[in-house]
């Protein structure tokens, strides 16, 4: 008869060993709870930083969406515009109308509002209440309708950026006059305009309709938006077909050997190369060797194509791998050729993932600055580009240019442009998610 002493020791778990096991389990459960807590704190900290960034950008950028205007009663007399009477203004050519002296008309109108102003310096300060773009606004009016010559018109024109900044509360009237760019006399004139109802704040359409300008009140992002659109068009037309074709070849046709392994390693390495390296490559090859036009969307699109190709190839290969092998086997078993199997069955099923990768690559290209700086897209461009070889800039470069300017009004426009860029990026990433969810199939 066996005794208790003959029982294996591992079958008799002492109380001390049981306590140690329970203690160890308690420590592991506590460590798991701490790990979850650390992860939750990290997420909250990251979201708080993002929220702070968005609040700061919106707080600085929203004033740029409004603009101050001043009402002037302008007299479009032919003697003032052309220096002599004009019997039939409708017969004047567009060139003659464009050369007229509209600045004198604006100065006369603002002087009529404050007739007691004398002295050269005071007149210069008075004329400075109105933007230099007021003359161009009158020119466009007269060129569109020459019959306005000889009449008096009440016109709302853009105020100078200092007036706009003062009206929005960014210039404190209580600080000493020598510490602010706006004199006490100018403040009194603005107060008088407010009392007379000749000044107002409206939505700033100039921000979306004008190109770049040295005057903040005339500066807009239309040129940068068009430049970004043209550049991304070139990038998409080149990178998506090439990326998909490369992925299909590597995944479906390429033999498994050292050469294909080398290609795959290089593609993965290119995805991690700093973007400025692609800018240096574009500068050396596309500009210096091929002689393509500098600061053009064509060159920018070529450079961004090289940068986004690895991303599109990797995402396209992942999409092709996600298609079950049974789809391929069933198509081949029904007598389809390999090309028919790929084009009729595999590609349609993998296309949602490919489109997602392409959109993410385009969003990455939209936010790039360094490679475009290297190929000269940092130039000051006033005219809105209309072709792929016209000089242009893009939204990130426009932000970079405005952030370095000293005028206070450019701070708001810089933040507003960042908001527009973020809106484009959010829309592009949301489109990628929607396409993924809409066309995704599960097996």
Description:
The chain is 64% helix and 5% strand. By secondary structure, it is mostly helical. It has two domains: 62-204, no CATH class; 222-439, Orthogonal Bundle (MetI-like fold), CATH 1.10.3720. The protein has a three-stranded antiparallel sheet with strand order 2-1-3. Helix 4 (102-113) crosses helix 6, helix 10 packs parallel to helix 13 and helix 17 (395-403) runs antiparallel to helix 18 (409-439). It is extended.
Secondary-structure arrangement, i.e. CATH architecture of the largest domain: Orthogonal Bundle
Number of strands: 3
Largest sheet: 3 strands, antiparallel
**What order do the SSEs take from the amino end to the carboxyl end, as H and E?**
HEHHHHHEHHEHHHHHHHHHH
**Annotated CATH topology of the largest domain:** MetI-like fold
Task: Quickly describe the structure.
The chain has 18 helices and three strands.
What is the fold's blueprint, element by element?
Elements: H1 15-61, E1 66-75, H2 78-82, H3 94-98, H4 102-113, H5 120-127, H6 133-144, E2 152-158, H7 161-167, H8 184-196, E3 199-203, H9 206-209, H10 222-253, H11 258-270, H12 275-289, H13 297-322, H14 325-333, H15 338-366, H16 370-374, H17 395-403, H18 409-439
Antiparallel strand pairs: 1-2, 1-3
Helix pairs in contact: 1-18, 4-6, 10-13, 10-15, 12-13, 13-15, 14-15, 15-18, 17-18
Characteristic key phrases:
443 residues; mainly alpha; MetI-like fold; 2 domains; three-stranded antiparallel β-sheet; 18 helices; 3 strands; disordered N terminus
């Amino acid at each position: 008869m066996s005794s208790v002493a003959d029982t294996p020791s591992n079958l008799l778990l002492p109380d001390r060993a049981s306590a140690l096991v329970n203690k160890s389990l308690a420590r592991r459960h506590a460590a798991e709870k701490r790990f979850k807590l650390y992860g939750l704190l990290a997420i909250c900290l990251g979201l708080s930083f993002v929220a702070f960034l968005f609040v700061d950008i919106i707080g600085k950028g929203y004033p740029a969406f409004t603009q101050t205007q001043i009402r002037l009663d302008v007299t479009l007399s032919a003697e003032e515009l052309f220096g002599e009477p004009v019997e039939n203004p409708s017969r004047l050519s567009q060139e003659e109308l464009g050369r007229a002296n509209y600045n004198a008309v604006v100065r006369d109108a603002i002087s009529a509002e404050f007739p007691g102003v004398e002295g050269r310096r005071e007149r210069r300060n008075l004329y400075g209440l109105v933007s230099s773009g007021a003359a161009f606004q009158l020119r466009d009016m007269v060129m569109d309708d020459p019959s306005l010559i000889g009449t008096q018109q009440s016109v709302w024109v853009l105020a100078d950026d200092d007036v706009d900044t003062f009206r929005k509360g960014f210039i404190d009237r209580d600080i000493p006059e020598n510490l602010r760019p706006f004199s006490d006399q100018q403040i009194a004139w603005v107060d008088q305009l407010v009392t007379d109802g000749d000044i107002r704040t409206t939505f700033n359409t100039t921000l979306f309709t004008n190109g770049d300008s040295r005057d903040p009140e005339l500066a807009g992002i239309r040129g940068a938006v068009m430049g970004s659109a043209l550049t991304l068009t070139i990038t998409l037309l080149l990178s998506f077909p090439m990326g998909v074709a490369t992925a299909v070849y590597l995944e479906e046709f390429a033999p498994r050997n050292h050469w294909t392994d080398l290609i795959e390693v290089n593609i993965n390495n290119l995805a991690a190369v700093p973007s400025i390296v692609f800018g240096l490559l574009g500068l050396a090859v596309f500009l210096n060797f091929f002689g393509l036009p500098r600061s053009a969307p064509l060159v920018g699109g070529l450079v961004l194509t090289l940068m986004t190709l690895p991303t599109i190839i990797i995402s396209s290969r992942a999409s092709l791998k996600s298609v079950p092998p049974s789809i391929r086997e069933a198509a081949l078993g029904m007598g389809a050729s390999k090309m028919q199997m790929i084009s009729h069955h595999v590609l349609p099923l993998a296309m949602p993932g490919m489109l997602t990768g392409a959109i993410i690559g385009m969003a990455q290209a939209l936010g790039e600055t360094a490679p475009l700086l290297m190929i000269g897209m940092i130039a000051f461009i006033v005219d809105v580009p209309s072709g792929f070889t016209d000089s242009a800039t893009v939204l990130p470069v426009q932000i970079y240019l405005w952030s370095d300017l000293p005028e206070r009004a450019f701070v708001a426009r810089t933040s507003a442009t960042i908001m527009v860029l973020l809106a484009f990026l959010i829309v592009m990433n949301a489109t990628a998610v929607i396409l993924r969810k809409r066309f995704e199939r599960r097996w």
